[in-house]
Specification:
The chain crosses the membrane at residues 12-34, 40-63, 84-104, 110-131, 143-160, 166-183, 210-227, 247-270, 291-313, 325-346, 358-377, 383-404. The protein is an all-alpha fold. The protein folds into two domains: 1-192 and 204-233, no CATH class; 239-419, no CATH class. 84% of the residues lie in helices and 0% in strands.
């Protein structure tokens, strides 16, 4: 069997387990804590999603692409990225902690926020999964994630039975992240024992490369985080944490199935990177079309089912307290489909070297989303936040690709769905 297909199976296995167990325990915790305290945790996690691109400095994409092409150079970039992330993390989290003292009203809110922010070290600084994905050894990620998931689920279930407060559930997230981090670190060191000196090597050239290339990617990724998390952050600031809780309940369901297209994308990007190194432009375009078509089909089927049965799903899983989330779910499932397409386009444009374009596109979309949320949330509440994100996702995933290389990526997207062979575009000068 093709190694890429086996790798996809491992990634898919990991994502399925994470999604199913994650949805189950998240719903269970949400019912236990109620919309307000569940919204507090969701708000802190939204901030983590916001700082992650700034900490990583675009390192995931840069390191993955280099590892797929040149392992030795990729290892040097991994080491450089690790050091850059650690420095960024300490600076950003220190500033956030100081700011939180002025934002939150109670010690409990401050405690939950601080636990999650500082505990996110184990996710923002985890680079080992990139190595395993690039070498088609995603089984190691699956093992680590599922062990950590089992521990996290067990802890949260125990805390519910013991009647624990919200701070314990915040700590459970950190323990889960830490277990996954240390298992992957151990497996990475064991697998690369023969070239361990490469990972420990300090290369200023590679550090400069991470910063120079990573800054546009970091800003682009930050913009993505902004327009995907702005709704939660602005709901919290303009309305209250209960609204964040309702909105997050809908997001949990609408994004829970995204592991399927993401698994395909992670594995297939290795083949696209290999095709990019060849002179066969037809093969490169063909693989990109297959990627767009596959992720769309895998994304749209569960989104349609979930959108149709949104009301009974919310009532069954969350209870009457979360009834307002049903209306939001009908919109967020559509946004999730375009989010998957946008992520695929982002990865493809990265391989093509379109860092500058991604920077401009994401800055525009994130700024527009902030304006839309500011205008629509006071008038339409939860629906306004969901519509703002949907508009941003459509623009980012499809429409704005018209302006990259004379619409080459957009043509590949459209011809993938329509089954029409696109003309070969001339490379950008």
């Amino acid at each position: 069997m093709n190694k890429a297909l086996i790798n996809t199976a491992w990634i898919l296995g990991e994502k399925v387990m994470l999604a199913l167990a994650g949805i189950f325990i998240t719903v269970y915790v949400a019912r236990y804590l109620g919309p307000s305290e569940f919204g507090l945790i969701s708000l802190a996690l939204a901030v983590v999603a916001l700082i992650t691109p700034m900490v990583k400095m675009g390192g995931d994409n840069v390191v993955f692409n280099r590892l797929a092409r040149n392992r030795h150079s990729g290892m040097l970039l991994m080491a450089a990225s690790t050091r850059v992330r650690a420095i960024n993390f300490v600076i950003i989290c220190t500033l956030l902690t100081v700011g939180a003292w002025f934002y939150f009203d109670t010690p409990k809110q401050m405690l939950v926020f601080s636990i999650i922010i500082w505990g996110s070290f184990f996710t923002t600084n985890e680079i080992y999964s990139i190595f395993f994905n690039s070498s088609l050894d995603s089984k190691f990620n699956t093992v680590a994630q599922n062990i950590a998931l089992g521990i996290g689920v067990a802890l949260k279930f125990a805390f519910i039975k013991l009647g624990a407060t919200v701070g314990f559930f915040a700590a459970a997230n950190i323990i889960q992240w830490a277990v996954s981090y240390f298992i992957k670190q151990y497996l990475f060191r064991k697998k690369t024992r023969d070239v361990a000196h490469t990972f420990r090597t300090r290369s200023r050239r590679h550090s400069r490369h991470i910063v120079q290339v990573g800054i546009p990617l970091a800003i682009s990724s930050l913009s993505i985080a902004l327009y995907t998390r702005t709704d939660q952050l602005m709901l919290g600031s303009m309305l209250d944490e209960t609204h964040v809780g309702w909105y997050s309940a809908a997001l949990t369901l609408s994004q829970g199935w995204m592991m399927f297209p993401m698994a395909l994308m992670t594995s297939w990007m290795v083949g696209i990177n290999h095709a990019a190194r060849s002179t066969d432009q037809t093969l490169f375009d063909h693989r990109i079309r297959r990627l767009f078509l596959a992720v769309f089909i895998v994304a749209v089927i569960p989104a349609t089912i979930m959108g149709i049965f949104r009301v009974p799903l919310i009532e069954l899983l969350y209870g009457d307290e979360y009834t307002p989330a049903a209306a939001v779910l009908g919109i967020t499932v559509i946004s999730s489909v375009f989010s998957v397409l946008g992520t695929a386009a982002f990865n493809v444009i990265t391989v093509m070297g379109g860092y500058s374009f991604l920077l401009k596109k994401m800055l525009f979309v994130s700024a527009l989303n902030i304006v839309l949320n500011y205008l629509l949330i006071p008038r339409y509440g939860l629906i306004g936040a969901a519509m703002s994100t949907l508009i941003a996702e459509i623009l980012s995933a499809v429409v704005l690709n018209l302006f990259y290389r004379r619409g080459r990526v957009l043509k590949l997207q459209l011809t993938a769905f329509m089954g029409i062979k696109a003309p070969t575009a001339q490379p950008a000068s």
